[in-house]
């Protein structure tokens, strides 16, 4: 299919930014692909992967680009946007791949909009506990939902082009409001990461020998705690930037844990069964992806 954008610049060659770049390379060969990084080392790797237009000069990377994608840590978006602002054409579109949207629109989005530039948020629901361009893969976006948030009133034609871009990379786009996005990902992404970290943190305290833990830890512990092996610094930023929604869902978690404790204290086995059954039913309902909402 023809590329929705002629020139795409991606800022940040990490796992997600690198995977987007590789997906563009494979799926949109007519698109000029640019990749920016602060250091030469990841760009040398990018060259070996067929990404020939690489930059350490942020302004030059933006000059003439039709689509600019921020894939750096979210806290760096606004500073980067201010730096390259003079090089962003007023007909170009800026988006991101951050997992928090209200904060991004409140900072980077509003700053760009006030200066006559177009910004629409994106969040591909894809990732892994590994990091870096060396772990990037063009298949990361295949079948992934990509949330699109457009509270600044960018024309529908541009939003449709952005949706076509993500769809060309294998994603399934879904438009939503930033606040709804943040409340949803707090429940199905951020809270599960916290629970994985909580499970790992609380496996150690007490008088159980480490040798016993290591010998008995198997697939249940490994699968439940897998996601907390991701970059702690990145997740600290995510929880900080989505703190309101995260605190709301954590309060619900604490109350629900107290409910389970009370059931156990009361020797209410039937109540414990209902508690566990409800969890199973909710999980199965959420994971039903029959495409009816696409």
Note down, in words, how this protein is organized.
With 294 residues, the chain is of the alpha/beta class. It has 12 helices and 9 strands. The chain has helices at residues 15-27, 40-48, 58-62, 77-84, 102-114, 156-168, 178-201, 210-216, 219-225, 232-241, 243-265, 269-286; strands at 7-11, 32-36, 53-55, 67-70, 93-96, 118-119, 121-124, 145-149, 172-175. Helix 4 (77-84) runs parallel beside helix 5 (102-114) and helix 7 (178-201) packs across helix 11. The chain is globular, with a radius of gyration of 21 Å. It starts with 6 loop residues before the first strand and ends in an 8-residue tail after the last helix. The mean pLDDT is 93.
Describe the structure concisely for a colleague.
The chain is an alpha/beta fold and 294 residues long. The protein has 2 domains: 7-176, NAD(P)-binding Rossmann-like Domain (Rossmann fold), CATH 3.40.50.720; 181-286, 6-phosphogluconate dehydrogenase C-terminal like domain (6-phosphogluconate dehydrogenase C-terminal fold, Orthogonal Bundle), CATH 1.10.3660.10. Helices cover 51% and strands 12% of the residues.
């Amino acid at each position: 299919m023809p590329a929705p954008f002629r020139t795409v610049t991606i800022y940040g060659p990490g796992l997600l930014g690198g995977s987007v770049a590789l997906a563009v390379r494979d799926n949109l060969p007519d698109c000029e692909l640019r990749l920016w990084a602060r250091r030469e080392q990841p760009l040398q790797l990018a060259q070996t992967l067929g990404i020939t237009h690489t930059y350490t000069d942020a302004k030059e990377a933006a000059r003439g680009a039709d689509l600019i994608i921020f894939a750096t840590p979210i806290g760096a978006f606004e500073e980067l946007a201010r730096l390259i602002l003079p090089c962003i054409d007023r007909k170009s579109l800026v988006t991101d791949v951050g997992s928090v949207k209200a904060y991004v629109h409140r900072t980077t989005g509003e700053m760009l909009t006030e200066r006559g530039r177009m910004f629409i948020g994106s969040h591909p629901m894809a990732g892994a506990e590994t990091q870096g361009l060396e772990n990037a893969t063009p298949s990361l976006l295949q079948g992934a939902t990509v949330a699109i948030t457009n509270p600044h009133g960018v024309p529908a034609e541009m939003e449709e082009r952005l949706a076509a871009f993500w769809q060309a990379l294998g994603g399934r786009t879904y438009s939503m409001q930033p606040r709804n996005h943040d409340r949803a990902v707090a429940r199905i992404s951020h809270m599960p990461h916290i629970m994985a970290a909580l499970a790992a943190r609380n496996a150690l305290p007490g008088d159980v020998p480490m040798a016993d833990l290591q010998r008995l830890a198997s697939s249940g512990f490994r699968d439940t705690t897998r996601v907390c092996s991701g970059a702690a610094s990145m997740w600290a930023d995510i929880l900080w930037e989505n703190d309101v929604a995260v605190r709301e869902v954590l309060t619900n978690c604490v109350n629900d844990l107290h409910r389970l404790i009370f059931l156990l204290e009361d020797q209410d086995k039937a109540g414990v069964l209902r508690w566990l059954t409800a969890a199973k039913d909710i999980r199965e309902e959420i994971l039903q992806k029959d495409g009816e909402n696409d």
